[in-house]
């Protein structure tokens, strides 16, 4: 079938993207679902910093590629062997397709799925296949054999997506798919980092460093868990205002000496510092403001060359912990329905993360807005 999709042909083009147009809206060919795959009509797809990192060239991916990994939609067609979904079901896309049988999946850690990571790295579906193609990417770009790569097994900046069954979680049909899309990355990663990785408990002191959509979701998760102090830190005054509106008890602009002010305000530091900025200064700040016996949990995905220097003696003398969290350390089939129930009960108001809706044709403007910190989460909701 022919669909409209946003294709990234080369990364590292200069901003503003409204001018350089790194994402080209093209008519591409999408094959129907093969064995164990599903065709999904995309209703909403989120603009995430992970997509922006690929556009900027900070996170190399095989190109050309149809971007987009945070999405929700409606099942349109089932491939052979898919028996637990039906046409018309509402689903959330997950950006790690977990095989269910590798060592990590068997340990209940699907975010670390070995075949899923390999497929994502190659720009393929879990089966190793690519279902997208275009033979005329642009007047000046050769797409080789015509195949386009999939972004994290999803490629949601398109009218439709063919994905592995393992990339989908079925949800209740009474959930607005605009908000459901946020559960595929922002909520899964942020709330999961707070509840699963950091194990935030009632009465804890928590710091959130980096207040994008994922960081704000973590803030909401910490509030839902009953954290007594929620310290929000960012370089944007506007985001600090949003954080206070969403329940932060303390807000700090990320300045050179902010760690001293935070330790003073929290009487020695926080139980858990959660870092989502994806930068070395943010990581170092998180480690410094974690109290003795506290922890730094990072989900920020800095460039691969980033190295975190830690005073090794403090790991012992202060009994600090440093932990990474990918996919919110979640089991998506378990946690997405749980988080949606919290949302439906008003305990996790993730609808407040949605700042702006865009047409697919305006996707480059949306990434300009994201880059300039004008939004928490933007959504592509009009694909025609």
Question: How would you describe the overall organization of this protein?
Answer:
With 384 residues, this protein is an alpha/beta fold. It has two domains: 2-184 and 349-382, Medium-chain alcohol dehydrogenases, catalytic domain (Quinone Oxidoreductase, Chain A, domain 1, Alpha-Beta Complex), CATH 3.90.180.10; 190-325, Rossmann fold (3-Layer(aba) Sandwich), CATH 3.40.50. It is built from 13 helices and 18 strands. The strands form three sheets. Strands 3, 5, 6, 9, 10, 17 and 18 form a seven-stranded mixed β-sheet that branches. Strands 13-12-11-14-15-16 form a six-stranded parallel β-sheet, sandwiched between helices. The mean pLDDT is 95.
List the helices and strands and how they pair.
Blueprint: E1 2-8, H1 17-20, E2 23-30, E3 37-47, H2 49-56, E4 65-66, E5 71-78, E6 90-93, H3 103-106, H4 114-122, E7 132-133, E8 147-150, E9 160-164, E10 168-171, H5 177-180, H6 186-197, E11 205-209, H7 213-225, E12 229-234, H8 237-245, E13 250-253, H9 258-265, E14 270-275, H10 280-289, E15 290-298, H11 312-317, E16 321-324, H12 332-344, E17 354-359, H13 363-371, E18 377-382
Parallel strand pairs: 4-8, 11-12, 11-14, 12-13, 14-15, 15-16, 17-18
Antiparallel strand pairs: 1-2, 1-4, 2-7, 3-5, 3-9, 3-18, 5-6, 6-10, 7-8
Helix pairs in contact: 6-7, 6-12
């Amino acid at each position: 079938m022919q669909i409209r999709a946003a294709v990234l042909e080369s990364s590292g083009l200069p901003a503003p993207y409204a001018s350089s147009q790194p994402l080209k809206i093209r008519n591409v060919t999408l094959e129907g679902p093969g064995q164990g795959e599903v065709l999904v009509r995309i209703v909403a797809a989120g603009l995430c910093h992970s997509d922006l990192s690929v556009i900027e060239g900070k996170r190399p991916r095989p190109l050309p590629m149809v971007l987009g990994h945070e999405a929700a939609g409606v099942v349109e067609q089932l491939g052979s062997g898919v028996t637990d979904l039906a046409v018309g079901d509402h689903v959330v896309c997950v950006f790690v397709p977990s095989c269910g049988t590798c060592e990590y999946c068997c340990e209940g850690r699907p975010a670390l799925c070995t075949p899923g990571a390999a497929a994502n790295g190659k720009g393929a579906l879990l089966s190793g296949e690519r279902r997208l193609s275009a033979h005329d990417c642009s007047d000046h770009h050769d797409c080789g054999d015509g195949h386009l790569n999939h972004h994290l097994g999803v490629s949601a900046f398109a009218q439709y997506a063919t994905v592995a069954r393992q990339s989908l979680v079925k949800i209740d049909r009474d959930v607005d798919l605009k908000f459901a899309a946020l559960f595929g990355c922002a909520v899964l990663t942020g709330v999961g980092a707070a509840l699963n990785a950091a194990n935030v408990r009632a009465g804890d002191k928590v710091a959130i460093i980096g207040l994008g959509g994922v960081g704000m979701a973590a803030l909401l998760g910490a509030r839902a868990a009953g954290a007594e102090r929620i310290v929000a830190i960012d370089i944007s005054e506007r985001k600090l205002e949003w954080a206070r509106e969403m329940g932060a008890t303390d807000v700090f602009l990320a300045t050179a000496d902010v760690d001293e002010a935070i330790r003073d305000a929290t009487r020695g530091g926080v139980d858990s510092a959660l870092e989502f900025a994806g930068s070395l200064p943010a990581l170092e700040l998180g480690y410094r403001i974690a109290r003795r016996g506290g922890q730094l949990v990072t989900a920020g995905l800095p460039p691969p060359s980033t190295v975190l220097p830690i005073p090794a003696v403090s790991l012992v003398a202060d009994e600090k912990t440093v932990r990474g969290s990918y996919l919110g350390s979640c089991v998506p089939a378990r946690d997405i329905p749980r988080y949606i129930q919290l949302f439906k009960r008003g305990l996790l108001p993730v609808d407040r993360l949605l700042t702006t809706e865009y047409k697919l044709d305006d996707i480059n403007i949306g990434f300009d807005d994201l880059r300039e910190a004008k939004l928490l989460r933007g959504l592509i909701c009009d694909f025609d």
